Structures are given as structure tokens and as C-alpha cells.
Amino acid sequence: MTFSIVVPVYNVAPCLRACLDSVCVAAERAGNGERGTGNRCGVEIICVDDGSTDGSGEILDEYREKVERKGDGGQWKILHQTNQGVAIARQVALDHCTGEWICSVDPDDWVEPDFLKSFCDAIRDGPADMVWCDYYRDRGRSVRVSARTDENATRHLEAILQDRVRGSLWNRAFSKRFVDANNVRFPPRGCNTAEDMAFLCDCLLHDPVIRWIPACNYHYVHRDGSMCNPRPNPEAYAPFVRSIEHI
Hints:
Blueprint: E1 2-9, H1 13-32, E2 42-50, H2 56-70, E3 75-81, H3 86-96, E4 101-104, E5 110-111, H4 115-125, E6 130-138, E7 142-145, H5 153-161, E8 172-175, H6 176-181, H7 195-205, E9 210-221, H8 238-246
Parallel strand pairs: 1-2, 1-4, 2-3, 6-9
Antiparallel strand pairs: 4-8, 5-9, 6-7, 6-8
Helix pairs in contact: 1-2, 1-4, 5-7, 7-8
């Protein structure tokens, strides 16, 4: 089993190393598997530097070189581009994914060592196109947030649109086969608010097999002004209106 971890990056130098350190540990643990079982996952980390001006791009290059020298922590791909917004950055990363499963980590968040391993174990337990789990909200302290809801795709979509479940990508793993087969993509240029929610809703409209797992390995760190948590733009919610019409 192979995983691609997508990390979109724009001017997050003060917190980027903590994020990348945690991703390295998670990739190493998933790559090592359980001793003697052969349950190992191949991992690639795809980071898109979206025209950063604060040294974030140089930090990404530093980590790729460090991991390549060390020989573990996954295979790293660092892509640099002019600033085009987080939606385009995510799509560029998605276009470069070669793993059987896709995860996302926002650059100002961090993950627990078992972040990938818990997904690997769950996927081996039975068929699924999307697996999701709980997460921690970090705002001075870590508080576990339950993301459990219906495992029927339509009712799961309803829960997201009604704001009963967060429409995020970072506590979910998606089958690349499913994403490719249904041509699920991120919104075009100019839609950089809730682009992750638009992608998730598009996936759910294609009736995937989805499963919740009782794991909690992601830390969502709320910071005002984050590239991944911008101020809401009402125009970004047009995809969700179309989603409701399909329910």
C-alpha cells in the first residue's frame, strides 16, 4: 500500500518545521510497519511552495535534502510555483500524486506518529474509498473533536453542509483510484476559500464507500490569517449549493 501526503505551503516559515518534523515521523512509522508483519506503507510527501517570500520554500528544500541523506521519512517532492492560491497548489500536488491513497496536512498543523499507520490499518480491514477520523483542535491546548457521523455518503454530505461535521481534508484519506475515476478536482483559480470542502463534497456526490475509524492523530492549529483558514468568501460556497441540489 502506498500513500501520498499533500502539503500546500505559503509563507508559514515560523511553524513549517514543526509540521514537517511530524510528517517525517509519521512517514517513517508507516514505512517501517510492525516488526515481522510486513505491514508497511510506501510514503511520498508532495509539498507545493506557492510563491512564498518568507523562506518557506528554502525550508522545504532543506527538508528534502535532509530526508534524502538520512534515507527514511518518505520520498519527498518539492514543487515551486508563482503564487496562484491554495486551490491551485492543492491541485498541482494532486496531479503529481502516485500513491494509492491521498492524505493532506496543512502547513501550520501537525500530526501524531500514528497518523498514517492508523489509516493503513483501517484500509487493510475492509473496502473503502474514503476513511476519516477524529482530530484535535489546538488553541492554547489540545481538545479532541469527534468527527463521527453517518457512513452513508449522502447523509455524510448533509452533515457537512449543515455544519455538523467539518468539511476538511486533513482528517481523511482518499482512494486515488476513486478520485481519478470520478475526475474529482479542486476549484479553479480564484476560489481559495473552503476549496477543501468543495473537493470533499464532490467526492461524496459520487457515492464512495466511506468509513470512520476511532483514531485521533491530527492537530488542527487555529491561527488567524492562515492560508488554509482565510476569511470566508460567500462566492466560494456556490459548489455547496450545487451539492444540495443533488441530494
